[in-house]
């Protein structure tokens, strides 16, 4: 499930199968220039970083972003036909890769309103479903997600803290869960282990963040 899957930093996920797919490139450690598809969840600096996108993009990279980020996406300086704008709660296929969008938002906090139209992604690769959300709380939509591997933000402040995230994992019961969005901008490095201890038996947990940053 996690072969050639990396969390480079914060919420930057890299999956390499037949294609190389990045989610929210941030604090990328070197020039990769290998991305077939880059998926962006929302426009905050630690999720939409043109500087880091430039380190992973190549000539024919496809870019996926929420529809309400049209203005920001246009500033990437890439051909318009390589940019795919998406809405929450829809299904898409880009460059032969199928995915579903899930609304990502806070229920009470002001940081990520539902009206912004930001998204998480359930992406299917080699018959394996990966759920990579943006910043969110445990919402009605997230509790209905079906996936094999779930990446869940656990840092608190702008997202769920580790206790709420563990409750969500125990509700949707993926085969494996990977906590992220902690130990850097928000949250403590120890939160990953605290999260793991609260999971129901039978749910695998892997701590994959390679660089916690400042």
Structure summary:
It is built from four helices and 14 strands. It is of the alpha/beta class.
Record the SSE blueprint:
Elements: E1 5-9, E2 12-16, E3 20-23, E4 37-39, H1 50-56, E5 62-66, H2 70-74, E6 83-86, E7 91-94, E8 97-103, E9 119-125, E10 128-132, E11 149-153, H3 162-172, E12 176-180, H4 191-197, E13 204-205, E14 209-211
How would you describe this protein?
The strands form two sheets. A seven-stranded mixed β-sheet has the order 6-5-4-3-2-1-14. It has a seven-stranded mixed β-sheet with strand order 7-8-9-10-11-12-13. Helix 3 (162-172) packs across helix 4. By secondary structure, the protein is an alpha/beta fold. The protein is globular. The model has no long low-confidence stretch (mean pLDDT 95). The protein is built from four helices and 14 strands.
């Amino acid at each position: 499930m996690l072969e050639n899957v990396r969390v480079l930093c914060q919420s930057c996920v890299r999956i390499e199968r037949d294609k190389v797919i990045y989610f929210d490139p941030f604090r990328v450690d070197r020039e990769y220039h290998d991305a077939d598809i880059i998926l962006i969840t929302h426009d905050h600096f630690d999720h939409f970083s043109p500087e880091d996108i430039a380190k992973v993009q190549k000539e024919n990279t496809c870019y996926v972003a929420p529809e309400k980020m049209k203005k920001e996406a246009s500033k990437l300086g890439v051909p318009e036909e390589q940019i795919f704008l998406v809405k929450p709660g829809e299904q898409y296929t880009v460059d032969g890769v199928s995915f579903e969008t899930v609304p990502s938002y806070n229920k009470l906090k002001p940081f990520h309103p539902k009206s912004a139209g930001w998204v998480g992604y359930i992406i299917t690769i080699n018959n394996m479903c990966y759920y990579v959300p943006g910043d969110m709380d445990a919402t009605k939509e997230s509790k209905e997600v079906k996936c094999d591997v779930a990446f869940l933000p656990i840092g608190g402040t702008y997202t769920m803290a580790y206790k709420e995230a563990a409750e969500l994992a125990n509700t949707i019961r993926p085969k494996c869960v990977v906590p992220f969005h902690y130990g850097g901008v928000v949250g403590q490095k120890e939160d990953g282990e605290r999260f793991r201890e609260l999971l129901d038996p039978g749910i695998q947990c892997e701590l994959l963040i390679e660089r916690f940053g400042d």
